[in-house]
Write a structure and sequence with these properties.
- By secondary structure, this protein is mainly alpha-helical.
- It has helices at residues 2-20, 32-47, 50-58, 62-86, 92-124, 149-179, 184-197, 199-219, 231-271, 273-276, 280-307, 310-338, 341-365, 381-403, 407-431, 433-452.
- It is 80% helix and 0% strand.
- The protein is globular.
């Protein structure tokens, strides 16, 4: 049902984008309609891969996802660069071609792998439940309903949750598009800051979140309370959750500490005075705060979604609706009064509300248990002191650097930052030995498992 529903939604939204919303000047942005159709077609084609993607996630084919998306993104980037350099007159068509390249590579990687897997690996792996490519797709069996209403109800619950989560994640873009609260120049600046700031989320936190969700969903049984879980699974999940929270808090605080003092330098090196002289550094500093918040939210929600019952998911969807309304309204109002930084503030408020909800769930789930995983959110006071000193030193270094804008000043500022970062990492090694031991144990376990296979 995913493909036909996706086609219908794509047609409706394409019509809305071209007929109901404000269109850019055709002379400034030619081929806008073709761009809308190409991106809609790209999304519909990617839905063909959805069954294979779900099976890969369930069976822990993590490398398949990383390699497929990696090759697809690499292909899109290369095509974009070549077309922009050699055919600048194409404009939006270059990005459309690059997006279609991404889609085709993504589809070929997934279908190529599973065709090979079904033909060769299945014969060697008796535990694998699917024996041919036909088994990967829905099929009608006599005496059984074509649609399982139990799974359809659960799917509908997750669809509502995903829809609301999409609004909470990308809501500011809808506000920008519908209400036109920012000029195109401000929108461009915000997109640049958003892309730079989200690198940490994409390359560090997103893989951690995906692996964490898979781990928790495989370790804990969804429809059982903590008391009915296996003792070993319960203890392992608690320890992993605690150490994951410790890790993401340390990474997030590190980004915040050094991002505050090096936002101006990064934007100056990346885009020159065009980015560093305006509101760019302020936006990037606040985005570093947002990175810390989304890091914590990602882990707490992973555990919550992996252990929630269907009734709890439905209740959470109702809360998500409230969060969505508050987020969209706050984005609109904060942006009207404070500019593009209001979007980041609204995102931070939204994530904090979700953290409170998921943390409350985790606290109730582990109520009365010896090991409380939420203690991973608290850093040792000595490590906090080191972060504060590093922030003060690098901030003072930035003031000196701004007064003397030269190569030597930049190098000195970078050198001071490297010294402070080394001090922070050394302090983490001293004060967070439990986390390091846990990471070393997990690495050794993965290495031994890889050698056995």
């Amino acid at each position: 049902m995913v493909l036909p529903i996706g086609v219908m939604v794509g047609i409706v939204l394409s019509f809305a984008w071209l007929k109901l919303l404000h269109l850019p000047d055709p002379d400034a942005v030619p081929h806008y309609a073709i761009g809308v159709y190409c991106y809609t077609l790209s999304i519909i084609l990617e839905m063909i891969t959805e069954p294979l993607y779900v099976i890969g996630q369930v069976l822990l084919f993590v490398k398949l996802k990383v390699i497929s998306e990696g090759f697809a993104i690499l292909g899109r980037c290369l095509v974009t660069v070549m077309l922009v350099m050699f055919y600048p007159q194409w404009g939006l068509l270059s990005f459309c071609t690059a997006q279609m390249t991404y889609t085709l590579i993504y589809i070929c990687c997934y279908y190529g792998y599973f065709i090979w897997f079904a033909a060769y690996r299945v014969k060697k792996d008796d535990d694998f439940p699917l024996y041919s490519m036909r088994d990967f797709f829905p099929k009608y069996e006599k005496g059984k309903p074509f649609i399982s209403f139990e799974y359809a109800s659960l799917t509908w619950s997750f669809f509502k949750q995903s829809f609301l989560k999409q609004i909470l994640t990308e809501g500011e873009r809808y506000v920008m598009t519908v209400f036109n609260v920012l000029s195109f120049a401000d929108q461009g600046l915000y997109d640049i800051i958003n892309n730079l700031g989200s690198l940490a989320a994409r390359f560090i936190f997103l893989p951690i979140e995906d692996s964490s969700y898979l781990f928790f969903s495989q370790t804990m049984e969804r429809n059982k309370s903590l008391q009915k879980q296996k003792e070993n699974s319960m203890k392992l999940a608690s320890e992993v959750l605690q150490h994951l929270l410790q890790a993401v808090v340390i990474i997030g605080v590190t980004f915040l500490t050094f991002g505050y003092s090096y936002s101006y330098l990064l934007l100056d090196l990346y885009g020159g005075r065009l980015l560093s002289s305006g509101r760019g550094p302020i936006l990037l500093r606040w985005y570093c705060v947002y990175v810390l918040v989304i890091a914590v939210n990602g882990i707490t929600e992973c555990f919550m979604f992996a252990t929630m019952k269907k009734e709890q998911v439905d209740r959470y969807n109702q809360k998500m609706l409230i969060f969505s309304v508050i987020f969209l309204f706050s984005s609109w109002q904060l942006t009207l009064h404070f500019g593009s930084v209001g979007f980041i503030w609204a995102n931070c408020l939204n994530m904090l509300a979700r953290i409170v909800y998921s943390s409350t769930y985790i606290n109730q789930y582990y109520k009365g248990y010896v090991n409380q995983p939420l203690t991973g959110l608290m850093l040792p006071i000595y490590l906090v002191f080191v972060y504060v000193v590093a922030l003060v030193v690098t901030s003072y270094s930035e003031v000196l650097y701004l007064q003397s804008d030269g190569i030597s000043a930049k190098l000195a500022h970078i050198g001071i930052g490297m010294v402070c970062l080394s001090a922070v990492l050394f302090s983490v090694f001293i004060f967070e030995k439990d986390l390091l031991i846990f990471m070393q144990r997990q690495y050794s376990y993965r290495k031994e498992k890889k050698q056995l296979t």
